[in-house]
Amino acid sequence: MARLILVFVFMFSSIFINILVISPLHLRKTSSSVGDNEGTYRLPNNTKPEAYDLFISTDIADGVFDFSGVVKINVTIIEESNQITLHKYGLDIQTADLTSTEGEAIPIHPPQYDLRRDFVIFKTVNDIFAPGETIILEIKYKAKLREDNYGFYRSHYYIDEENIDDGFDNIITYGKKRWLATTHFEPTYARRAFPCYDEPALKATFDIQISHSSNYTAISNMPQMERKISGSRAITRFQQSPLMSTYTVAFIVSDFSYKEKIGSNGFRHRIYAQPDKIDRLTFVLEKSEQILTTLSNYLEVNYTLPKMDQAAIPNFPSFAAAMENWGLITYSRPFLLYDEEVVIIISHEFAHQWFGNLVTPSWWNYLWLSEGLATLFQLIGTDLVQPDRQIFTKFVRNEMHSAFLYDASFRSQPLNAYKESPAAIKADFDDIVFYKSSSVLRMFMHAFTENSFRKGLNAYKAVTDIDLFESLERAVKEDGSLDKEMSVKEIFSSWSDQSGFPLLIVTRNYSDNTIQITQERYFHEAKHAEANLTSWWIPYNFDTANNIAMNDTRPDGWQKEPNPKLSSQRSIKTGHQTIGYFLMDNKLDSIAFFMMNEITR
Questions:
Q1: What's the pLDDT at 25?
Q2: Nearest to 545 by CA among 7, 17, 8, 6
Q3: Global pTM value
């Protein structure tokens, strides 16, 4: 869906002004957000996981949808307590045992369930744990592979597939059905596969084993350590993972084939798909290796896992094209095998290996940090490996415009929008999180200079927006790319902590030869009372009539004051190359003509 953004250039005397225009007729309303009205959904802070040892057994090869599991969790006590609270959903717990690290049994009551919050609570009979203690919780459970494409779910494809029109405009697929089991855990669906601490900040290591038909293979985030075959069964064991969030864990049991490429340093790329689709993977494999290397070099941070697997899944969550599971990225089959935009999609998921997996937001209100940076780096990665695509031009015309449409409603939410319930969290995967955040980040990449921005990201190791601001602050002050009296936190938070975006209004006073800039929040509906209650730090550029530096996107100044006045002896362009995330209007007596800027990084 292409939307055209036109930049108007108004000429009068020696003054040029770039204006971004959006027709209100094409603006759409946002739906009301899903609220959290029933108390906290957060786990208590009294314990945290250190390590998971997970064993899953499935007979998906035979079309059996029941599965069983055993999970052992090494739990560290944070606050004095006699209970452990985990997440679980749709799992039938058979037994639960608690032991000390020396193997001594610790008596516990039968588990209690809080169905509204997906909690399972284990309380001791007598013991009270002290901070710093480590205990081991072992849970045996049973469940069914889900049908809704979330959690640990079943999927299928057809051998000798044939699509036939039934005469009523319905396409029916015939062939031999082949089953597979796969996962999708983001944002809150790991709890549907095993009991766990299903919050992004509660990272732990994972040792995973899967029992399955010997005719099938199992893959996971880490490389296979061993595969033991006994009759018709196999047990595949994987290497221990680094510290991971539960939503980035993944495993697949299937009869997929793969195409492989081993790099000069021994690094392994594999792409898995149903056997009759393997011939479509050559281009994807070649570009995957190129993109991962390019992003590693650009960020100057190595990809940290020993392999990269990708898989084309026949049935996939409807709202997603792919999922960035660490070291095992899953894709909706059409997007990986048939989509001409596959390089963009791969770049986005690969960017998540740094932004989201290695550096993980502490809670979902910071989702925009990982999704915004991944969307920005899908542009950078694609531009570096396919520079002829003019990917930034397309971004402005499509995704950035989409963010404006979404953000022009008084119901729009800030980037930092705190939610707790699974329904509210899922609803936040919207144009604000993906496209507004990447547009704002792109604006600051230019305002702070690309080198300083990259240096800040290189040092960004923690999990909140403040951590990012502090990393950028150090970088811009070291490089001198921001005035010493200015604060990255103050500038950036004016965009992340409030809804909407600014409309700049520019007027010329001919009597004193000045230009006056005012700003207000833009609404596509009737002007709202909040229009004049918010303001943003806005980077702008000055040009003279004889020196128009369109390729220099460093700001000459920042607009925050309500009514700054500027000398009209110079021309003003508020954001070269359509970099800024704002609109501009003018009250100037001028002659207008059209000009489309070539958008570059």
A1: 28
A2: 17
A3: 0.88
